[in-house]
Amino acid sequence: MEKIVDTRGLTCPEPVILTKKALEEATELLVLADNDEAVENIRRLANRMGCAVDVARGEEGGFRIRLSRSGEASPSEGTDIGIVCGAAKERGTPLVIVLSSDRLGRGNDELGEVLMRSFVHTLLTLEPRPATIIFYNTGVRLATRESALIDDLRQLEAAGVGLFVCGTCVNYFGLKEQLGAGIISNMYDIAATMTGAGKLVIP
Amino acid sequence: MNGDGEWEVALFLSVHHALRAEKLLKKAEIPCKLIPVPRHLSSDCGVCLRFAPPLRSQVEAALAGRVDIGAIHPL
């Protein structure tokens, strides 16, 4: 059955992230989009994931993007999404936060964990919300199901914050099965997101 | 999740007290969450335990004689 993903009104990189998530569960997808940037990012995603893509103009000036994934094409092979959020950059200054450790600050480990939990919880109330949070090194542990802040991360994700989790790091720590939020990303996307950030916060 | 009146928070004398209280409540399987002390309650960089108001008596019982609760406030 064809699944519908409505990305209208969302800002980059939300449309392509939602599409990727949906493609991991469905083989036939109809994506509604309202801007060229989303269409281009989704087209790029489809190409990398080996999906057939057909873009048509919708009734109200938007786009209707049909994606179909063949049986052999595995979504996990297409982790290099190559998201470009140029327009978003012009609109404002996307805030990107990098969590490179599962603790905030150096010194006392127990305290560092408490501070990290407080920090991530506070992000929910922050204005403007971060566009993306990147997790690498031991930071990826924060995005596992057993993590004390998984609920906060899921709320952030539901609010449209992109959570990029370093695939190399997840692999290194053997945490792939335990991942509870975010999408597995690679250094191309991570480096591009960091260098393309209007404001980069590495606490 | 962060709405008015949905939660109560227990404040403690120190971060150590808060952490000990969290461990006790987890052990007693009382759902709670360690969060930064809301700005309107204190300007200190502290942590407190958030729980659903109906659990208040359970929280107090689980901590009685073990960890002193500084104060309980509605959020």
Topology:
The complex is a heterodimer of chains A (203) and B (75).
Chain A: E1 3-6, H1 14-25, E2 28-33, H2 36-48, E3 51-57, E4 63-69, H3 86-91, E5 95-99, H4 109-123, E6 132-135, H5 150-158, E7 162-166, H6 167-173, E8 183-185, H7 187-195, E9 199-201
Parallel strand pairs in A: 1-2, 5-6, 5-9, 6-7, 7-8
Antiparallel strand pairs in A: 2-4, 3-4
Chain B: E1 8-11, H1 15-27, E2 33-36, E3 47-51, H2 56-63, E4 71-74
Antiparallel strand pairs in B: 1-3, 1-4, 2-3
What's the N-to-C terminus distance of chain B?
A: 11 Å
The helicity of chain A comes to: 25-40%
Please give the alpha-carbon distance between the first and last residues of chain A. Answer: 44 Å
Count the E strands of chain A.
9
Rg of chain A, rounded, reads 17 Å
The average pLDDT score of chain A comes to 86
User: Which overall shape of chain B is indicated by the principal axes computed on the Cα atoms?
Assistant: globular
Count helical runs of chain B: 2
Contiguous low-pLDDT stretches of chain B (5 residues minimum) are none
The largest contact between protein chains, plus residue counts on each side, is: A-B, 12 and 9 residues
Largest sheet of chain A: 5 strands, parallel
Give me the secondary-structure category of chain B: alpha+beta
**What string gives the helices and strands of chain B in order?**
EHEEHE
Order of strands across the main sheet of chain B: 2-3-1-4
| Order of H and E elements of chain A | EHEHEEHEHEHEHEHE
- Helical proportion of chain B, percent range: 25-40%
Shape field of chain A: globular
Strand order of the largest sheet of chain A: 8-7-6-5-9
Bin the strand percentage of chain B: 15-25%
Describe this structure in words.
The complex is a heterodimer of chains A (203) and B (75). Chain A is 35% helix and 22% strand. Chain A has helices spanning 14-25, 36-48, 86-91, 109-123, 150-158, 167-173, 187-195, and strands at 3-6, 28-33, 51-57, 63-69, 95-99, 132-135, 162-166, 183-185, 199-201. In chain A, the strands form two sheets. In chain A, strands 8-7-6-5-9 form a five-stranded parallel β-sheet, with helices on both faces. Chain A has a four-stranded mixed β-sheet with strand order 1-2-4-3, covered by helices on one side. In chain A, β1 (3-6), α1 (14-25) and β2 (28-33) form a beta-alpha-beta unit. Chain A is globular, with a radius of gyration of 17 Å. With 75 residues, chain B is α+β, with helices and mostly antiparallel strands. Chain B is built from two helices and four strands, in the order βαββαβ. In chain B, 25% of the residues are buried. Classes of the chains: A alpha/beta (203), B alpha+beta (75). The A-B interface holds A 110-111, 114, 117-118, 121-122, 124-125, 148, 151, 155 and B 1-2, 15, 19, 33-36, 47.
